[in-house]
Design brief:
The protein is mainly beta. The chain is 12% helix and 43% strand. The strands form three sheets. Strands 1, 2, 3, 4, 5, 8 and 11 form a seven-stranded mixed β-sheet that branches. Strands 6-7 form a two-stranded antiparallel sheet. A two-stranded antiparallel ribbon has the order 9-10.
Length: 211
C-alpha cells in the first residue's frame, strides 16, 4: 500500500460554478454538485507535485443547490497542441451559448494524497503535508483554483469544524451517472470514468470508487 497523508478538509466557495455534463454538446449544463475531477483540480491548484497523487474521499455540500441560466460568449475552436502559431481574431470565432450554472456554491472537500513512484530521494510525506497545510492556511496556490470553468474562480481555505446541512439536502438524492475522473494513459489519451452518484445528507462518498 502506498504511503498516504492524513485526510484534509478543504472549503471551496464562490458566486458561480459550472461542472459541465459531457452529454450536452452545444450548450453547457452543470451537474447539481461538484464532480470528483473538479475537486481534484482544486486540490492540485493548491499543491501539485509528480511525487504525490490526490485521492478524493467525500464532497460535502454546504449551500442549497441553486441554478441560473445565462448566455456567454465562447470561442468555437481550440488551439492545436504543437501546431504552428498564426494570427487569431476572437471576434471572428465567437459564439453565444446558453449556460445553466450554479449560484452561490459552498463545499467541503475531504481528500488525502499518496506518494507515487515518481517521488525522488528528497521527497517525503511530512514535507508535502506541511507544504499543503501552510499553503491552505496562507491562501497560497500553485495556480488559481476554479469551480468547473476557469472564469469561475474559487475561494479556498480550511474547512469549519462543523456545519449545518441545508434543509433541502437532507435525506438521499439520486444524482444519476456523474463523471468521476479521467483515466490518463501513457500515450496521452484519456478515458472518462463515471459512477452512480448519491447525495446523502448533503454528502457524496467516493472512497470506494477509485478507477
Amino acid at each position: 500500500m502506498s504511503e498516504r497523508s492524513p485526510t484534509f478538509r478543504v472549503r471551496a466557495w464562490g458566486p458561480y460554478a459550472c461542472f459541465t455534463r459531457p452529454e450536452f454538446r452545444a450548450e453547457r449544463m452543470t451537474y447539481e454538485v461538484m464532480t470528483p475531477s473538479a475537486a481534484r483540480g482544486l486540490l492540485e491548484a493548491i499543491l501539485w507535485k509528480p511525487a504525490i497523487r490526490w485521492r478524493l474521499e467525500r464532497i460535502n455540500v454546504l449551500a442549497p443547490i441553486r441554478f441560473e441560466a445565462v448566455r456567454r460568449n465562447e470561442v468555437a475552436s481550440k488551439a492545436a497542441i504543437g501546431g504552428a502559431l498564426g494570427s487569431y481574431f476572437a471576434d471572428e470565432d465567437r459564439q453565444q451559448r446558453n449556460t445553466v450554472l450554479l449560484r452561490d456554491v459552498d463545499y467541503v472537500v475531504e481528500a488525502h494524497f499518496e506518494m507515487t513512484a515518481r517521488a525522488g530521494p528528497e521527497d517525503n510525506l511530512r514535507k508535502f503535508i506541511e507544504m499543503f497545510e501552510r499553503r491552505l492556511v496562507n491562501g497560497q496556490c500553485f495556480q488559481t483554483p476554479y469551480l468547473g470553468c476557469r472564469e469561475f474562480a474559487a475561494n479556498v481555505g480550511p474547512a469549519p469544524e462543523q456545519w449545518e446541512v441545508p434543509a433541502s439536502l437532507r435525506g438521499a438524492r439520486d444524482l444519476g451517472l456523474m463523471l468521476y475522473d479521467f483515466d490518463f494513459r501513457p500515450d496521452g489519451s484519456a478515458t472518462p470514468f463515471f459512477f452512480k452518484a448519491v447525495l446523502s445528507e448533503g454528502r457524496i462518498d467516493v472512497r470506494e470508487i477509485y478507477p
